[in-house]
Amino acid sequence: MKKAGFYTAGLVIILIISGTVKAGPKFHFGEDKDLEIFLMGQIWTVYGFNIDIPGQSNLENTRGDIYIRRGRFGFKGDLMKNLSWKIWFAYDNFGKNDLNPVDIVKGTVNTGGLTYSRFEVWDAYFTWTVDKQFGNISLGYFRPQIGKESITSGFAVLSFEKGLPNFYVRRHIIGKPDTGSTGFSSANGRIFLINWGGLYKSSGWSLNWNFGVGDNQNYTTSSNWSPLLSARLALSIGDPEMKKYKLGYTQTYFGKRNGVTLGLNYGHQGKGVDRKFIPDGYPDGKPFDKNEMYGIDILANYGQVDLFGEYDILKRRWADGTDYSDKVWTVKAAYNFKFLDGQILQPAIAYGVFDPDNNGNSIYGKKKNVMLDIGVNWYIQEQKIKLTLHYASGKVYDYAGEGDAKSSYVGFGFQFGI
Fold it and tell me: Quick check: is 98 in a domain?
């Protein structure tokens, strides 16, 4: 897997030098029928230091890792007028070590066993456009449109890694599936659902909305089931976030947008069971009566300045009468220095906090997590060719009840899209 990372990195360098990274091929099969092939990837080199995990003996406090952080390829197109489709696949974390400094920083500390990548379906859905403004119906396997960091691609964020709301919102509202005998598990934030969305644009303002009903398989058993309801309403003042309705977001427009977007998010699921949280007395997972998420986010892009912030409240009422209310938030800022040939150098900073309920009933106990990210992004062909160099540090308080886990790292990354 390490060799695959080196070969892919070499290919990307060649493409950069030759300037041949362009859009993927597109095929037409008659009127209103087409297919487009696309490929995306992130190859990371990280060097961690100041690594400290309570209870771990003979632990090196420095560690390096080279791996494919994100790999994607897929297909999209149209079956007929007003009926589009998309299916793409992921092969993330190829060559990743079992103890990775990035994981410690973001609170997902793994100290035992190897980390194997899983090849999996990432999205697979149809969108029927009944009306371009008011009637976009999507059906299939994709992300419920709540939690701005979660529904924004990892290829389109200002920070090196996605912010803390991405990981904590997904774990709380979507959960993790059983690992099974393969040892694999996925927490990619996708479920099967139907979503109604729209984008209304007027002079100086616009409104984007999504309402979904989904089957959250991760929290389902034969005796515990209820649909996941998701709702997002986003008001933009000035330039809109998107020219037309879509299920995709970004945090920078490279100085081309002058607008502010304020988003409100809500998720609700009734009866369910958390099969990855198995305390004494609950061999099949701990049941809950209600699981909710409230969130607010803001994205401001003015001139060369990009600002992003998100604040979420994660609430759950367990079936035994106990409950918790966790909080997670992040803020990011960046500035775009433009060059005559269209390239952009973008210094960026991000800070995030996960603050669990102090009553100890959270699925994370009292493991507070903080992280800081400072770096620079070099957009050679905007998101199609991007180089990143960042420093990040993070700490997980009260890890395993024996003290704090912490790590810092310097990360260098290639990103490409075809």
Answer: no
